[in-house]
Write a structure and sequence with these properties.
The chain has 160 residues and is mostly helical. The protein contains nine helices and no strands. It has helices at 2-14, 17-40, 47-62, 67-83, 85-90, 95-103, 106-117, 122-129, 133-153. The longest helix has 24 residues, at 17-40. The mean pLDDT is 85.
């Protein structure tokens, strides 16, 4: 189950299929190490927390260093991106995720994805990132606001 979740996460955050698979594989390895370490120490296993922690760790290693860098890359590769087999297999329009990366801070986008797409509680996200639930709510709220502005700008365009 988690393997597909990692692929979906990196698909929505990195966009570039060449980065998605290596990042997902690294995150899955990290996830398994965290899980196995907890089991060896007889600690409770919180897979959602390990998912967030692993995603953030791998995303930090593979992400674009700035929104400008991402946007420049996308402008040069948008035709290639639209043809990528991974994106077609998920049957989801990538355009909203590209647009939101222009306006949303990365930490807001990540928290929004974990909460709204992967249905992970604010508490678990906060534990994984060592942040308060209030900080997570703030980030989610700003991410939702950016997403709302995006859909209001172009109503009906992003059905997918």
């Amino acid at each position: 189950m988690w393997n597909n979740q990692f692929i979906h996460f990196f698909y929505l955050t990195l966009i570039d299929e060449e980065k998605v698979i290596p990042a997902a594989n690294e995150a899955l390895e990290k996830f398994q190490k965290l899980r196995n370490a907890a089991l060896r120490k007889n600690l409770s296993v919180c897979e959602e927390r390990f998912f967030v922690e692993s995603c953030f760790w791998s995303w930090s290693r593979h992400r674009y260093q700035s929104q400008i860098e991402f946007w420049c890359w996308y402008q040069q590769n948008k035709d290639k991106v639209r043809k990528q087999s991974l994106f077609k297999s998920l049957n989801v329009s990538i355009e909203p995720w590209v647009q939101i990366q222009k306006t949303c801070r990365p930490e807001e986008l990540l928290c929004l994805l974990w909460k709204e797409v992967f249905q992970i509680s604010e508490h678990k996200i906060g534990e994984a990132l060592a942040l308060t639930e209030g900080a997570i709510r703030y980030r989610i709220s700003h991410g939702l606001h950016a997403l709302g502005e995006l859909t209001l700008e172009k109503p009906g365009q992003y059905h997918g």
